[in-house]
Amino acid sequence: MFNSLKNIRLSILLLPVIVMFFSCDGRERKHKTNVEVFNASNLKDSILENIKYFPESYFEIITDTIISNGFEVKIKTYADMNSSVLNEFKVDTIVHKHYYRDAISEITVLKNKVEIVSEKINKSYFLNRDKELKQYFETANLSGVWINQNDSISENEISIYIMFGKPETDNYFLNEMIVSSNGTFSIKEIIE
Fold first, then answer.
1. b vs e for 147-170, b when ≥16 Cβ sit within 10 Å of the residue's Cβ?
2. Splitting the chain (192 residues) into consecutive groups of 10 residues, what average pLDDT does each group show?
3. Residue 123: how many CA atoms within 13 Å on its side-chain side?
């Protein structure tokens, strides 16, 4: 009798474990396929992006031009690695993000070897002159600064072109900086 009482107690203890083991077969749980998990995650969007920077790395261009009328123009243009313009577009299922780094140009003008003008040209410089350019500059950046040698043959002044443009378009904003031999200068938009 003692043995049978012991067996009954053991059976009572093991019965819940046996019931629990056989009842957990996983039929009630819904399993998701790998495709369902991928589609539900945010990974799908991040994998289908193509991100590029133009230029990919820092650049610096220095030009030093001496003109026969006694002017010397030094233009140093370099990439602003902290500021860019985004051009975003979608092709099929891929989102392309092209970041065009802004540029900064430092213009130094000398007349007969004496510095008469030194200006740092970028979007901020033009925004300080004309606040209405704010919206345009959200999608445009400095495209180039160069000497207009055709109009720089005068003895008393030179002409420097400053151009901003919207990347991947023909939309541009061209300005002319006229520097006089006494160090005064003016900037005006060229409308074509």
1. beeeebeeeebbbbebebbbbeee
2. 60 62 56 68 69 95 93 97 93 92 97 96 94 93 92 84 95 94 93 72
3. 23
In 3D space, the residue among 176, 89, 188, 57 whose CA is nearest the CA of residue 130 turns out to be: 188
CA atoms within 13 A on the CB side of 115: 6
Q: Is the pTM of this model over 0.85?
A: no
Closest alpha carbon to 143 in 116, 163, 126: 163
Please tell me the distance from the alpha carbon of residue 190 to that of residue 192, in angstroms, as a whole number: 6
Q: List strand residue ranges (DSSP E) for the chain, in order.
A: 49-54, 60-66, 71-91, 94-111, 114-121, 141-147, 157-165, 172-180, 185-189
